[in-house]
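Entry
Fold in token form

___
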Amino acid sequence: MTLGLLLTLLLWWTIYISEGAYLGARVVRLLYDWTAGGYDRLKDFDRVDDLAFLANPLLYRLEETVGAQASVLDVATGTGRLPAALLDLPFFEGRVVGIDAAPRMLAIAAAKLRPWIDSGRLTLLEQLAAPLPFEDAAFDAVCSLEALEFLPDREAALREMLRVLRPGGWLLVSNRIGWEARLMPGRTEPTPNFERRLARLGFVDPETRPWQTYYDLVWARKPG
């Protein structure tokens, strides 16, 4: 194997697979800002799937506990995928706060979701996942999709999510699976191990659902 091929593979792994995660938060932020303009096109999110797997199940759980006027925090909101799906549900009457460390991603989210921002039901903040600038028990649900493996300290972020959840509140996160997950040692783990991690941190009733080729969805709750 030539040096050129090795360097190409290393670059592919660094940028495409791990998205700069091993190079620190600043590099991750720069990469996401660099790709922000084409991010939605690259990901090609399916709105029907987002409603079926994310927004509707979340609203169902919230209606069982606190009602439709719930407050939701989306950590690493990116271009606003989850807020867009949730706020489009006619029976969701609550508010959403989306945070992200990449300002250009947030700018795209703001442009797409301006009516919700103007209505006061959506707030977007440039902010790291830990520490969070919110009081204890501030939200009825906290979500983070396709993000945990890229955060500087996944465990610290999960602790902060637990802190800002109200007792009985819902956690919705994704856990990376598949062959790509095996290329990110120390940042990914099998879903049963991830469920045990959540339990160790203080979450209860973890439940995993299949979602995408490279991600499971994991639900859990804060005791109370």
User: Anything to note?
Assistant: The chain has nine helices and seven strands. The chain has one domain: 3-221.
